[in-house]
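Agenda item 2: zinc ion complex prediction
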Amino acid sequence: MMDESSPLAAAVRSQMPLATRIFDAIRERTADHVGITRPAWSSQDLAAAEIIAEAARELGLIVEWDLAGNLLCSLSGTDSDQPRILTGSHLDSVPTGGHYDGLAGVVAGISVLAAFRQMDLQPACDITTIGLRGEESVWYGIAYIGSRLAVGTLPLEQLDKLRRGDTGRSLAEHMSDVGVDVDELRRAKGATINSNNTRAFFELHIEQGPVLVGEGVSVGIPTTIRGNVRFPYAHCLGVYGHSGALPRAYRNDAALAAVELVHKLDSFWIEQEAMGVPDTVFTVGKLFTDPTYHAMTKVPGRCDFTLNFGGTTKTFLDACRERTVIMAGDIAQKRRVEFELGECVGSDPTPLDNQLRGVLADKAESAGIQIREFATVGHDASIFARAGIPSAMVLVRNDKGSHNPDEAMEMSDFADGSVVLAEGIVSLLGYDST
Ligand SMILES: [Zn+2]
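Presented output:
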């Protein structure tokens, strides 16, 4: 059921031609041989930012850049000293990625501000759409660089330490290339966005999984951003040997030991699900023997692998870490091999703000837009939430997954998500849009 009654919903829906023009212009400027590529702090994510900035200026919004090169487009409030409401997402993408990952949230923010302008809405506080840089971890090995610089949680020595794998050049050098004053960024230190000057952050993002498509629903309201426990550099050491000459009792097979560990962890995951632990994931993204030494006729002497657990409770994530260590010890003894699990990294689950989630869910219901609530993957919203800024998200149905060129968001679903976002912001301002 579409909401016919709210002037705000109608105003947001009437901005879809503008949103389409912005999406098309950015696609044209950042197309790759397949999909689009917008590396962080490159001419491509800068081109995307400039197209957004131009659209914002035409709408009469105030356009600014923070010291890290994040783009801020604001509708001024009657009292700009009041903490602002922030919305937006990231401008960068993975290589040959999909067009809507990140960008949808920035374009939604601009569409919502355009609707507010059309309605001549005078908010009490500034409402700002942010286009963040460096959310994807592809180029510098860590994620959320733009948002972490904005809230002051990225140590500034990382500007020189982080280097792009493909160019070998530092983050600072790449930032300078696209006009960021890195010396000024170093001098300023500290956060530009904090819980004193920002009362809420809303991030609209395409769903990167299949839930909304499967459920036939256009909008999701995430409950929590999953935390994770990861072993990125694990390996098992055995002894290479002749595949035909070694009876079982004489083998030290690294591959079978690694596979047994993976299989046991999969069974553990199934058990946890059966016990009712919600929203868990487990992925073995890499599992390989060394092509320099391996052969069909050799017992493998080494097997490398990664383990990646995700969940919404610390209890589950702690159990994953502990069980991995215990199981690896048992298998090592039984199979006469050695596991070197390497560094264990990860992040805690980040619950999204209950009150803001409730506002979004209520507003979706009164706008006649069905929603589903479930946990989601890491997004910039987790950085703002951890910095103490109440944060919530709106997910938009998207077919064919994400981080690939086939992302297929429908503009009618994007409009639904943008209506929920706009109604949520207006509700927070204390207006009744109906
Ligand atoms: Zn994203």
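Discussion summary: The pocket of zinc ion is lined by residues 90, 101-102, 135, 205 (CB under 6 Å).
Owner for follow-up: CH.
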